[in-house]
Amino acid sequence: MTYDDVHESEQLILVDAADREVGYLGKGACHDGPGVLHRAFSLLIFNSNGELLLQQRAPGKRLWPMYWSNSVCSHPRRAETLEAAIHRRLQQELGISAPLQFLFKFQYEAQFAAEGSERELCSVYIGRSDDPVHSDPQEVQAWRWVSPQALEEEMAGAGMEMFTPWFRLEWARIWRDHRAAVLALT
């Protein structure tokens, strides 16, 4: 079984709009066609300089390969808490750890051509870490630290299409409604 086969068959948690569990389905099936609503998370890691760690998704990703996105985004597995899943994926993808702070939840849908879609109820967290990054090349093509101001300029320019749709949505809300929490991390 290949790396992708294992990940596509992971059992994700299906939820209703109130984030109540309603069943389980393999990751691949959750992202087929218009998608099935499932629980997800996004984590944004900042360093002591106030810079955000962005990752460019690996070219082998089924959805939005080579797009820039938040530090880590993924799904809890069946019977796994959000916090356990976030710490697991942070370590797997970037080789770092950080304390977490919950900000908000949001639901979105986004279609990626004929490849599939995201249909998620996403919990957004922030954290701070100055650990050295050791990224997994099967997950992360590249990574970089960026100041919120530079990110705002990038997202307002012609390159905004190279950011994942969920990251564009959550960053706008974070910078508008949760700026004080972000600035308190530095």
Protein model, in words:
With 186 residues, the protein is α+β, with helices and mostly antiparallel strands. It has a single domain, classed as Nucleoside Triphosphate Pyrophosphohydrolase (Alpha-Beta Complex). It has helices at residues 3-9, 27-30, 82-94, 148-156, 165-177, 179-184, and strands at residues 11-15, 21-26, 38-46, 52-57, 68-69, 72-74, 100-112, 116-128, 140-146.
Short note summarizing the structure:
The protein contains 6 helices and 9 strands. It has one domain: Nucleoside Triphosphate Pyrophosphohydrolase.
Keywords:
alpha+beta, Nucleoside Triphosphate Pyrophosphohydrolase, 4-stranded mixed beta sheet, disordered N terminus
Element layout with pairings:
Blueprint: H1 3-9, E1 11-15, E2 21-26, H2 27-30, E3 38-46, E4 52-57, E5 68-69, E6 72-74, H3 82-94, E7 100-112, E8 116-128, E9 140-146, H4 148-156, H5 165-177, H6 179-184
Parallel strand pairs: 3-8
Antiparallel strand pairs: 1-2, 3-6, 4-5, 4-9, 7-8
**CATH-derived architecture:** Alpha-Beta Complex
Low-confidence stretches: 1-6
Which bin fits the share of residues in helices?
25-40%
What integer value in Å does the Rg equal? Answer: 16 Å
The proportion of residues in beta strands is: 25-35%
Principal-axes geometry comes out as globular
